């Protein structure tokens, strides 16, 4: 090595931040980096906290993006919706990668602090529930873990009272001239979506003539791409839990792995998967 040490100020970089907004100021790093409060002296509790906190940050972004995609589809502005939905899939790729880090924690590591979690559990995540409601999995029973927070219940109920992402996609099918049963278009959107033959026929027509319906076809594939990543996230959750705690009950009282495996059977956009058998 030779010469003087690199000084970014010589290259024009600002290095004095008295009275100026710094990187840490803009990102509010002080409250973010001081939000980790382990309840035990266990080494791996910090990993557990940060993994879940960062996942919640990614979910916050997913909610922001899915909401924007829904609005774009509702106003027939599909190109921005495609870009946004591609981003949502990449967000879930990041969420999937987080399980790889958590899986470095062994059962012996987890038992050193698991009892400190009390009844807290990931299935109580308000933001995860918001994502499920936004994309169409609307189970009213899942409001119960939030009843101690009327503000959160009100937010979730507001999401549940509005059309989901899939509802907006189906309404777009109808606006595009494809026949959809009026009962589907006028359904009570607070209730879980049930597969419908007219919707399946409409999506099938899109896939059989992609040249005529290219934008609808691209939207359909963006939805399938998202659900693909979403399913992987659920599957990785199951395998991580089984690897770390086996078949013990979850901290929140669920059956743990068995409960998570049942969630793997939930399909968000059923007709888009069913039509593939018939093409």
Shape: globular
Oligomeric assembly: single chain
- Provide the β-strand percentage band: under 5%
Low-confidence regions: none
Order of helices and strands: HHHHHHHHHHHHH
Question: Count the helices. How many?
Answer: 13
CATH architecture: Up-down Bundle
Record keyword descriptors for this entry.
279 residues; mainly alpha; Methane Monooxygenase Hydroxylase, Chain G, domain 1; 13 helices
Summarize the structure.
By secondary structure, the chain is mainly α. Helices cover 58% and strands 0% of the residues.
Topology summary:
Layout: H1 23-26, H2 29-33, H3 45-74, H4 78-102, H5 107-110, H6 126-135, H7 150-161, H8 165-175, H9 182-185, H10 197-208, H11 214-245, H12 257-263, H13 270-274
Can you put this structure into words, describing what you see?
This protein has 279 residues and is an all-alpha fold. The protein has one domain (41-277): Methane Monooxygenase Hydroxylase, Chain G, domain 1. Helices cover 58% and strands 0% of the residues. It has helices spanning 23-26, 29-33, 45-74, 78-102, 107-110, 126-135, 150-161, 165-175, 182-185, 197-208, 214-245, 257-263, 270-274. Helix 3 (45-74) packs antiparallel against helix 4 (78-102), helix 3 runs parallel beside helix 8 (165-175) and helix 11 packs antiparallel against helix 12. The radius of gyration is 23 Å and the shape is globular. It starts with 22 loop residues before the first helix and ends in a 5-residue tail after the last helix. The mean pLDDT is 90.
